[in-house]
């Protein structure tokens, strides 16, 4: 009987030991699962995604009314995807986005990504100029970690607001290791766009953004990501552009070319201090004879002129309809006028030689 009692005691002791070990393993697994979550910082800049209206069914609203904390609290499911925290960098409608906010946003993004405990950054933004901000960051972010921008076409107070799901998907993409090294991404309406190729095409439609030339980087559905391609041009960590010592950016103006455009618009831009001009030309970057003459005058005064197009898609080729070598102009390639302006601003911090500027447009 004593032996039996001893065996029972030993069995109970072993059971308790195994139970203790199991609890330790489960506790460690739970802690490991928590630490394995990506650490994502959300930087808010305002825009429609943070907008508010008097009712949920009116078209008019005020951008930049909701803070980053409220945006995060509206999507509690974010905690399932990553460890998140937020910072308010600005709170403006993206029509008021400017160089100073760009530089502040880029510098803060780089500072965060340099930290070991930050795995990626999500940036909320207005849709009106998101393609410009995204491309700017694509040129100056010094990291391969994911930087994902998102936005909304309906304000936060709207019936069926699109912002909460866009934020959820953006965090899911930023927390995905597959997003690393793809440059700055824009996640909106279940699509994953690359910063270089996307543009807004509708004033009000939720499905407003397209990547016309090269297609989407991927797609996401409630945080389930599918990847299609990588960028084909230089970006982020491999870029030679830096905002570390930049306090201001050179002035670059966009001149819209229409039938009978007034050439004095080009002259006025030069007279008012533009260091660069981008023409939103017709067709393949073409323009009137009078506009060509005005551009020639600008080039002779040391202003760098890039020919882009007002057409939604397509490539502006060098020396197709206009002799760029003779005129001293630069062809934008696939970049639209707004994105051409962004790149030219940064290029002008390095050179004003048209041949070298063309090299940057061919590379980036």
Task: Describe what this molecule looks like in 3D.
With 364 residues, the chain is of the alpha/beta class. Helix content is 35%, strand content 20%. The longest helix has 35 residues, at 2-36. The N and C termini lie far apart (85 Å).
Note the gap between the termini: 85 Å
Strand order of the largest sheet: 2-1-3-4-5-6-9-10
Mean pLDDT score, rounded? 91
Helix percent band: 25-40%
Number of strands: 14
Low-confidence stretches: 1-34
Q: What is the H/E order?
A: HEHHEHEHEHEEEEEEEHEHEHEHH
Which structural class is indicated by helix and strand composition?
Answer: alpha/beta
DSSP strand (E) fraction?
15-25%
Q: Radius of gyration, Cα only, in angstroms?
A: 26 Å
Tally of helical runs: 11
What is the global morphology?
Answer: globular
Biggest beta sheet attributes: 8 strands, mixed
Secondary-structure blueprint:
Elements: H1 2-36, E1 38-46, H2 68-73, H3 78-81, E2 82-92, H4 99-113, E3 120-124, H5 130-140, E4 147-150, H6 163-174, E5 184-188, E6 191-194, E7 198-200, E8 209-211, E9 218-221, E10 224-227, E11 252-256, H7 264-271, E12 276-281, H8 289-300, E13 304-309, H9 324-327, E14 330-331, H10 337-347, H11 354-363
Parallel strand pairs: 1-2, 1-3, 3-4, 4-5, 11-12, 12-13, 13-14
Antiparallel strand pairs: 5-6, 6-9, 7-8, 9-10
Short description:
By secondary structure, the chain is an alpha/beta fold. The chain contains eleven helices and 14 strands. Helix content is 35%, strand content 20%.
């Amino acid at each position: 009987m004593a032996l039996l009692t001893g065996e029972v005691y030993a069995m109970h002791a072993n059971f308790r030991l195994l139970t203790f070990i199991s609890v330790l393993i489960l506790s460690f697994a739970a802690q490991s699962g928590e630490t394995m979550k990506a650490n994502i910082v959300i930087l808010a800049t305002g825009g429609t995604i943070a907008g508010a209206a008097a009712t949920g069914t009116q078209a008019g609203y005020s951008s930049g009314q909701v803070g980053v904390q409220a945006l995060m609290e509206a999507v509690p499911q974010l905690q399932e995807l990553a460890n998140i925290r937020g910072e308010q960098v600005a709170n403006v409608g993206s029509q008021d986005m400017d160089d100073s906010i760009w530089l502040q946003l880029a510098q803060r993004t780089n500072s965060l990504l340099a930290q070991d405990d930050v795995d990626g950054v999500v940036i909320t933004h207005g849709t009106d100029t998101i393609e410009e901000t995204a491309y700017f960051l694509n040129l100056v972010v010094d990291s391969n970690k994911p930087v994902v921008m998102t936005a909304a076409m309906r304000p936060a107070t709207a019936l069926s607001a699109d912002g909460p799901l866009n934020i959820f998907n953006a965090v899911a993409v930023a927390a995905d290791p597959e997003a690393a090294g793809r440059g700055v991404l824009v996640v909106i309406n279940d699509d994953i766009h690359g910063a270089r190729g996307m543009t807004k095409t509708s004033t009000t439609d939720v499905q407003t953004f397209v990547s016309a030339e090269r297609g989407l980087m991927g797609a996401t559905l409630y945080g389930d990501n599918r990847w299609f391609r990588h960028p084909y041009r230089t970006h982020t960590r491999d870029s030679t552009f830096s905002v570390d010592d930049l306090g201001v950016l050179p002035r670059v103006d966009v001149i819209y070319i229409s039938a009978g455009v007034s050439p004095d618009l080009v002259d006025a831009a030069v007279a008012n201090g533009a260091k660069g001009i981008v023409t939103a030309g017709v067709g393949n970057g073409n323009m009137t004879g009078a506009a060509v003459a005005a551009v020639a005058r600008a080039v002779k005064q040391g202003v760098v002129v890039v020919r882009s197009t007002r057409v939604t898609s397509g490539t502006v080729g060098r020396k197709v309809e206009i002799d760029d070598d003779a005129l001293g102009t630069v062809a934008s390639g696939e970049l639209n006028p707004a994105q051409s302006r962004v790149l030219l601003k940064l290029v002008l911090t390095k050179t004003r030689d048209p041949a070298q500027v063309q090299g940057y447009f061919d590379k980036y």
